[in-house]
Amino acid sequence: MEKLTVALLNDSFPPVIDGVANAVMNYAKTIEDKYGHAVVATPKYPGVVDNYPYPVVRYRSINTVRQLGYRTGYPFSARAIHALEKENADLIHSHCPFVSTSLARILRETLDAPIVFTYHTKFDIDIKRAVSLGFLQKTALRYIVKNIESCDEVWVVSEGAGENLKSLGYQGDYLVMNNGVDFPKGPASKEDQQKIREEYALPEDRPVFLFVGRMMWYKGIRLILDALSQVKAASLPFYMVFVGDGANLKEIERYAKSLSLEHDCLFAGAIRDRKKLRAFFSCADLFLFPSTYDTNGIVVREAAACGLGSLLIRNSCAAEGISHQRNGILSSENADSIANILTQIIPHREYMKKIGENALNDIYISWEDAIEKAYQRYFTVLDNYQKAPKKRESVSDDFFFVASEAIEGLNRTKAFTQELKAKGIEFSEELLEKFKSNFPPKR
Q1: DSSP secondary structure letter of residue 35
Q2: Parallel/antiparallel/unpaired status of strands 72-73 and 61-62
Q3: Which helix (H) or strand (E) element contains residue 140?
Q4: Is CB count within 10 Å lower at the N or C end of the chain?
Q5: From the CB of residue 207, how many other CB atoms can be counted at a distance below 10 Å?
Q6: Domain boundaries, the chain
Q7: 265-281: pLDDT as tens digits
Q8: CA distance 406 to 408
Q9: Where would I find the beta strands (DSSP E) of 54-101?
């Protein structure tokens, strides 16, 4: 197979660890090891030293970790663009629709290389969480959609992700290109499992439930805790392990304590050691992942790789490919339904084990297999790019329009609140909503 140089762009990358960063790392490693050459471009983090078998180009950034979970880069860095130009990429693969795809569009002009974009995450939810003002949300979404539509081919990680992308206003075509997992097929060794049990005092005489992911309310964590509160009221034994970190962690811990679950739950924090994380999956009886936010749920496949079945919300993206009571358990999106299921299966640990075995055999896909399919598709993208009219748009005009509209909106909001204060009118959310409704975004 012909060797290609692929530029992989994403707004998150270590030290940030999330599903998309994990995907980019696996693409880069697999391409470098098996197919050709990879280069990663991502925002700069203070003090970070990269040590990877492929080059990582860092560009200027500002700290937006509290709002977004990662730093926001500046895509017009001349030094970064020059460094990427020297890599002479045959194809650009962006994994984030904002800054990374803006940079991808600039590179396309200089390298004359096509852009593949993968839609991993429901960005409308991320934007609403980070930006409270509705008119700025709409502006950001319009820019994201325009960025995506400017790409030469669009991939999504699930059918549900594609539906979400269409709901944002995207009108183009897309292909489903599944993500994989980097765990080998099968549970961790008995020795590794025993080490985890001893280090974290995991019980063996009662079912262990597991959640792995960002500790954010939108991941369905409240549903887990409310359901477990009902299970505890029914005097049924269990132990719940939460692995991950996030902005809502302290609130979640306090909420668990308010439900008197503090002795039934372990908050293990972020586990970056993949061997250790695999042992956690292998020690659990059932993976609880009632998230309707995730577009693919790599953690569900990671659980399956270890022979662990998952409880998921029916019709969610994470539940795609799951057959109820065969290789997973499907629930309605409410605590009563989850509690009812857990109450019924807690006495039947062998039943949970069988579901995990079926998940291992039915839904496991390695990153090697997933990326082999993606790499083969790259050649079709290159062929189509040579035949199709080239897309030529002003990236800087689009980017700075969003920035200027955001600044104007914030200035008008500030002036509005100052005017209220001068008139002695008490500020309220109701007044702010009225202000926002009279300030539609520009067309």
Answers
A1: I
A2: antiparallel
A3: helix 134-149
A4: C
A5: 21
A6: 5-180+369-404, 190-364
A7: 999 999 989 999 999 99
A8: 5
A9: 56-59, 61-62, 72-73, 91-94
DSSP string, 2-32: ---EEEEE-S--TTS--HHHHHHHHHHHHII
How far apart are alpha carbons 218 and 121 in whole angstroms? Answer: 13
Domains 5-180+369-404 and 190-364 share a fold: yes
Helix (H, G, I), strand (E, B) or coil at 371: helix
d(CA 304, CA 361): 8
What three-state secondary structure class fits 85? Answer: helix
DSSP sequence for 213-251: S---GGGTHHHHHHHHHHHHHTT---EEEEE---TTHHH
Angle at 283 between CA 280 and CA 285, to 5 degrees: 115
Token pair 């008995």 in the structure block, residue: 190
Q: What is the pTM of this model?
A: 0.77
Taking only the tens place, the pLDDT of each residue in 16-49 is: 878 889 899 999 999 999 999 999 999 999 999 9
Residues 6 or more apart whose CB falls under 8 angstroms from that of 387 comprise: none
Q: What are phi and psi of 410, to 5 degrees?
A: -65, -40
CATH superfamily of 5-180+369-404: Glycogen Phosphorylase B; (3.40.50.2000)
Provide CB contacts within 8 A for 221, sequence distance 6+.
211, 215, 242, 248, 252
Q: Which CATH class is domain 190-364?
A: alpha beta
